[in-house]
Amino acid sequence: MKEKLPGSLWINGGWWNWRVTIPGEKGRKNFKVVKPGTGQPLPGNRPKGEAVSAAWAMWRKMSMDSALDNMPSILTVDGLCTAFCVAAHIYYRGRDGEETGEASNVEWGLMPYRRYLGAKPIDSISHSDLVAVRKELVAYGYSRTSVNKIVGFWKRMMAWALDEGLVSATVKAELSQLTTLKPFRSEAKETEPVHAAPRNAVKAVCSILPQNLADMIRVQELTGMRPGEVASMRWEDIVTGADVWIYRPESHKNEYRGLPRVVVIGPIAQRILRKYKGTKDRYIFSPKRAMAERYVSMRAARTSKVQPSQVDRSVPGAQRRPGEKWETTAYAHAVRLACSQAVDMGIMKEPEAWYPNMLRHSAGTRVRKWFGGEAARAVLGHTSGTARITDRYSWEAVESEFIRIATPPMLRLG
User: Fold this and answer.
1) To pair with 258 at 20 to 30 A between CA atoms, which of 52, 189, 204, 292?
2) Strand order across the beta sheet in which 8-12 lies
3) Is 252 helix (H, G, I), strand (E, B) or coil?
């Protein structure tokens, strides 16, 4: 759900104005958030989105300034973590100003340090203290990859603290030397690689879901998109052609790196998408449409006559309504519930349960088996130099690819 801009916006005298309570201060203040430029129309004639973007930029700066101004004289680990979390919520945003999930990841990653070292002044922390926290995480049962992520968040915070002048270069240097754990070289448990979603299990889940949601699953499986990319599909972002269609997501994972993302859509996925051509919904796949389809199927399955009081059970002014767009968490939750239902119905086995990102692994594995690693990299949208990432997404096909490539020379030389 998109975060609401604090305060209120209005036009007065041709200016976009913003009234808001500044973090850490009392009372509300007014700001002119869009200033006129030479040869440009008056601010009041510009789109409201421009004013919203300018107000968000001002809000983030004020929030960060307030957090830094209110830092305690003796900086503790807990105080530094709090300030960095504020900075993360300001920094990790997409092109549209909407906050990404990385800020929540930062809060999760710093929780162990706050738990074990929170009250200690940052200048009193030593390298051995951080090693002790890492050992506690391993003993608690965290996987090796999770431990390494948590170590990475700490190093990221120390680099930020040095830039902001909160710690000295000496403190930063000592507290950034914690090494990551190597595979099978530590006591931390190893996680299994992500498998491709079982094809029969995907079919079983699609058979009991509303048509709109089932079609979203099929399109993702065919194209190898990320869950957020398929959930954000709009017709205005798709260029239809004679053979293939090109989809350029409005926003994507690597846009902050300045990298493009294009999804090539083939004829099978095109047939699914054509069913939604001309609909009034902003997004092709939406919870609102899926909920309406679910109600229709439930009504059709009734064995008794619908009572007059049951014809329309909508609640006027309901606070929670289905949205226009699937959030990735809601998408995963819907799939998880459908997997449980499929197991209860006996059409799927419990070990076959899957989640949306496994569909991306399915596409990568399938493409790599037929067309090789470069084709899988292009379909998944991995940039050059990231072959190891593609290997992780299609590891079940790597062995067969090695065999195929190594067979001709070995037939002659081996």
Assistant:
1) 52
2) 8-12, 15-21, 28-32
3) coil
pLDDT at 403 over 80: no
Give me the amino acid identity at 112: P
CA dist 119 and 80 (Å) reads 11
Which of the 8 DSSP states describes residue 60? H
State how far the alpha carbon of 63 is from the alpha carbons of 22, 49, 89, 266, in Å.
Answer: 8, 21, 10, 46
SS3 call for 400: helix
CA angle 286, 291, 297 (to 5 degrees): 130
Measured distance CA(142)–CA(129) in Å, rounded: 18
Of 259, 85, 225, nearest in space to 156 by CA: 85
Q: Convert the pLDDT of each residue in 182-203 to its tens digit.
A: 999 999 999 888 889 999 999 9
Count of beta carbons in the 10 Å neighbourhood of residue 376 = 27
* Bridge partner list, 17: 10, 32
The torsion defined by the Cα of 92, 97, 101 and 106, in degrees rounded to 10, comes to 30
CA torsion sign for 379, 384, 390, 391 is positive
Task: For tokens 């700490």, name the residue.
Answer: 154
Question: Are 404 and 275 within 8 A, CB to CB?
Answer: no
CB 236 within 8 A of CB 209: no
- Residue 406's pLDDT band (boundaries 50, 70, 90)? low
**114 phi and psi, to 5 degrees?**
-70, -35
| CA nearest to 289, candidates 227, 214, 224 | 214
Question: d(Cα 159, Cα 173) in Å, to the nearest integer?
Answer: 9
pLDDT given for residue 318 in this prediction: 53
**Structure tokens that stand for 12 in this block:** 């007065």
| Cα 224 from Cα 360, distance rounded (Å) | 4
Which amino acid makes up residue 379?
Answer: V
What is the percentage of the chain residues whose pLDDT exceeds 70? 79
Residues above pLDDT 90, as percent of the chain = 39
